[in-house]
Design goal:
The chain has helices at 10-23, 36-52, 57-77, 129-137, 144-157, 169-176, and strands at residues 26-34, 81-82, 101-110, 116-125, 181-187, 193-202. The protein has 203 residues and is α+β, with helices and mostly antiparallel strands.
C-alpha cells in the first residue's frame, strides 16, 4: 500500500470534494467507463431518489430519458477509449473498437423550485465539433410541437451519416427538457480534442 503523504488528510479532502458537489446542487455523479450495467445502476438509483423526493412523474420521465440518451452518446461517441487487451474475445461481426470502453461523466442534480438537471460530458475529436454544434443549435428555440415534427421527419428519413443510433437522441432531449438546455466545448491543450458538455433542465 502506498503511504499517504503526512500533509494530506484524506477525510478532509473527500469532504471538501463532497461539499463542492453539494454547492453545485449535484445529487448523483459518476465518472469513468460508461457501460450498459453502469447506466442501469445509475437509472435505478435515480428512480429511487426521485420517488423519495416525490418528483412529478412527467419530470421523472424526462430526467430518466435524458440520462439514457446522454449516457448512450458517451458509449457510442466518446473519444476517450480503452481498447480490449490482446487476445480478448471479440463477438462475431464486431471489431475491437466496437467493444472498447468509452469514458465520460454524468452529473444529476436539483436546482431551485424543484427543477432537475442532467449533465453529461465526454472527450470528442475537434473535427466533430462543427457538425455537433450545428445539430444541437438547430434545436434551440423550437417548441415541443416543432421538435415532435422534426423527430417524425428524422425517423422517416433514417439516421444521418455517421450516426450509430436512430438520430433522434438530441431531438428527444430537447423536446422533453422543459427548462431548456445548454452545451459547450472546452479545448484540451496540446491535443486535437475537446471536452464536450450538454446540460438539460427539467421542471
Amino acid at each position: 500500500m502506498r503511504p499517504t503523504p503526512f500533509h494530506l488528510n484524506i477525510a478532509e479532502d473527500a469532504y471538501r470534494f463532497r461539499t463542492e458537489l453539494d454547492r453545485r446542487d449535484i445529487v448523483s455523479s459518476y465518472t469513468g467507463p460508461m457501460t450498459d450495467d453502469i447506466l442501469s445502476s445509475l437509472g435505478n438509483s435515480l428512480r429511487t431518489k426521485m420517488e423519495f423526493d416525490e418528483a412529478d412523474s412527467k419530470t421523472s420521465r424526462g430526467v430518466f430519458s435524458a440520462l439514457v440518451e446522454q449516457a448512450q452518446n458517451i458509449m457510442r461517441y466518446s473519444a476517450e477509449t480503452q481498447a480490449p487487451p490482446s487476445g480478448h474475445d471479440v463477438p462475431e461481426g464486431q471489431t475491437p473498437e466496437d467493444i472498447s470502453l468509452r469514458f465520460g461523466m454524468v452529473l444529476i442534480g436539483r436546482v431551485d423550485l424543484g427543477a432537475w438537471f442532467v449533465s453529461c460530458s465526454n472527450v470528442i475529436d475537434n473535427s466533430a465539433i462543427p457538425r455537433l454544434r450545428a445539430n444541437i443549435s438547430s434545436l434551440q428555440g423550437l417548441d415541443r410541437k416543432e421538435l415532435s415534427a422534426m423527430m417524425k421527419e428524422q425517423l422517416r428519413d433514417g439516421p444521418p451519416e455517421g450516426s450509430k443510433g436512430a438520430g433522434v437522441g438530441w431531438i428527444t432531449i430537447a423536446r422533453d427538457a422543459s427548462g431548456g438546455f445548454e452545451f459547450d466545448f472546452f479545448p484540451i491543450l496540446g491535443t486535437d480534442k475537446s471536452y464536450f458538455t450538454f446540460k438539460a433542465y427539467f421542471k
